[in-house]
Every structure is written in structure tokens, then in C-alpha cells.
Amino acid sequence: MGFFSKLKEGLTKTRDNIVSGIDSVFSGFSSIDDDFYDELEETLIMGDIGVVATEEILDDLKLKVKENKIKNPADCKQLLIDSIKEKMDLGENAYEFENRKSIVMLIGVNGVGKTTSVGKLAGLLKAQNKKVIMAAADTFRAAAIEQLTEWSNRTGADIIAQSEGSDPAAVIYDSIAACKARKTDVLLCDTAGRLQNKKNLMEELRKIDRVIEREYSEAYRENLIVLDATTGQNALSQLREFNDVTNITGIILTKMDGTAKGGIAVAIQAEFGIPVKYIGVGEKVEDLQKFDSDTFVNALFDVDNGTDED
Fold first, then answer.
1. Closest-CA residue to 80 (of 252, 266, 236, 265)
2. CA neighbours within 13 Å on the CB side: how many for 19?
3. Which of 40, 56, 88 is the endpoint of a domain?
């Protein structure tokens, strides 16, 4: 199965929620009026696209309908698809960190696939011939260090780790020293998702931030939050909490399988202005891919993407 097929399969539930509803709106109305827009609004919100994103998408649609003097509801569907694609377009510099000496910190709660995402990112970067170090700074979960060591063996990326329970900021400090000594391109940092309490966790992230600022301020910073797509609106509240502590620059959306509430990708970008940069659809390195708005929206609306391996 190619990535597009897996993504399409992963968006089945969302598509069933949104597309069948949207199709019935487009075919069930003979004119474009307030009732038509109300019905469309309800369908999008039910598909986890969220209130903010839905309002913005519909405002855009109304503008295009007016500009193009469209009278038939059926002619709106492509405009709606185009509007969602535009809303999710990442722009030119989304992956600037690949071209600079950079530190990429992955944060998020336990169980979202954070450590696995560090490993997969290392694999993607190694495939571009980048020199990569992974910092095992989730020292509160013994399995995280073992897991990252396994990914190091699999991808050939270096790893800096200490024993379980050691100071995460000290691991980052050692990793930065190793980066400078080995002339590494990208430092990928795994971080804890749960400490004794939330306050401790957030303080730990602040401390890591301070170490990076002090020891490697010239590095390009990328802070990626890993969110589980199956949690829907709950992912938004996680993002809100972490965004208070550190400047989040992008999102990795994992577990985009058949139970995923994929509309959340649209909701996140509209509400926070933070782009989804990677999508995960499975366990292999190649199952984590850069986010592409065309591919995602085509999969969401079951539009042919041209080639399965896109």
C-alpha cells in the first residue's frame, strides 16, 4: 500500500462523517441560501473540523461564490475543497530546519507516538544524508531510552543517553556538546510526556529551553508537538497547554488510522495558526511523511491523487 492509500484508509471515518454529509447538502439544495450554508456548517463541525476553521472556510466559500456568480450548490463542492487546501497550505519555509544547523524538540503527552516519531524523523533525515543525533531526554520512562536506542540501531543515527531518572536537561547539554564536536546537522530531542505532575513537566521543558538558549543559541529551533489524531478535540487542549510553555512551530499528527478524527488537522491550523508538518499512518519509517495539503484534502474527499505513491 502506498502512502496515499494508507492516508485515504486512515481518513475513512472522517470522510464518512464529512463527505456523505456534504454530498447530501450539495444535492439536497436547489439554491444557495442561508439554510444551505447552515447545513454545510453543521456537517463540517460534525467532522471535527471545528468552529473556527468552519467559519473561516465558509466565509471564504461565500466570497468565492459571490465572485464567481455561482447559483448552483453542486458547483460549490470544488470551491470548498480548494478553500480547505488553501487554509492548510504550509508555505515555502515549513522545513527550513533541514537546511540549517538545527535543534528539533518533540514534545507531547505519553502514548502519542513521540519516541517513535523521533526515530522515524531520524530515518527521514538520514535518507537525505544529514548527520543526526537523537537525545534521549525522556529519562523518566525506561522504555523510551531502550526504544530510541533501537531506532538508533535501525537508522544509523547517533544517540546520546544517560541512565533512567537522570536530569533531562543534562542529556540535552551533553547532546549539544556532541553536536558541536561531531559537526551534526540536526539534533532531535525526545522529551518526557508525564512527570509527577503537570507543573513539573512544564518546568522541565522550560529548563531544557534555557539550556538550549544558553549553549546553542545559534541553532535553528523547531518545536514539534506530537498529537494523536484519534483523540480529536482533546488534541487541541493538549496543544493549548504545551503552547503556553514553549513556542510550538509545527505538529506531527500520528495514528491516522481508520479511527482517526482527521478533521482535527484543519481545526488546529485555523485555531492556532500552527501547521501540521508531518502525518503518521503506520509503524515504518516511510509511514511518517511531510504534510501536503493537496494529498491530505484529496484523501479526505476521496479525490484521485494522480499516483498512489505521491
1. 266
2. 17
3. 88
